[in-house]
Specification:
The structure is a single chain. The longest helix has 14 residues, at about 60-70. This protein has helices at about 5-10, 60-70, and strands at about 20, 25-30, 35-45, 80-85, 100-105. It is built from 2 helices and 5 strands; from the N terminus they run αβββαββ. It is globular. The structure holds guanosine-5'-monophosphate and zinc ion (ZN). Zinc ion (ZN) binds near residues 6 and 7.
Length: about 110
């Protein structure tokens, strides 16, 4: 998907501050951070959001959560953090390549806006 900004980050066509990479997942810092630590974890395989994930993506989705749990302390988030995915425009999704936001480093309010 050459018109997808995250696919272009995966391809190395757009630079990013990477914090994690394996064969199917990339983690990089959000360009417009909403918290002192704001990292995006994305699958290297393109799909728009959770609703577009295929049955075959089940293990990948689970592994993304496990990777976040393992990497969060290394990002300085031992005290706590939030994992969020905005699915669809009304929820605030602006990039149509599935991603999990990992936010922390400050007190986070609940419920979110
Ligand atoms: P969404 O609004 O879709 O849930 O989240 C998309 C996120 O991607 C936003 O927080 C936005 O700041 C981030 N973002 C958009 N374009 C880029 C980019 O080119 N590089 C990086 N690192 N983050 C981006
Ligand atoms: Zn993409």
């Amino acid at each position: 998907m050459t018109d997808c900004i995250f696919c272009r980050i995966i391809a190395g066509e757009i630079p990013s501050a990477k914090v994690y990479e394996d064969e199917e997942i990339l983690g990089f810092r959000d360009i417009n951070p909403a918290a002192p630590v704001h990292v995006l974890f994305i699958p290297k395989k393109h799909f728009a959001n959770l609703g577009e994930a295929a049955p075959a993506d089940q293990a990948l989705l689970g592994r993304m959560l496990q990777v976040i749990g393992r990497e969060a302390p290394k990002l300085g988030l031992s005290e706590g953090y939030r994992v969020v995915s905005n699915c669809g425009e009304p929820a605030g999704q602006t990039v149509n390549h599935f991603h999990l936001h990992v936010l922390g480093g400050r007190e986070l309010q609940w419920p979110p806006g």
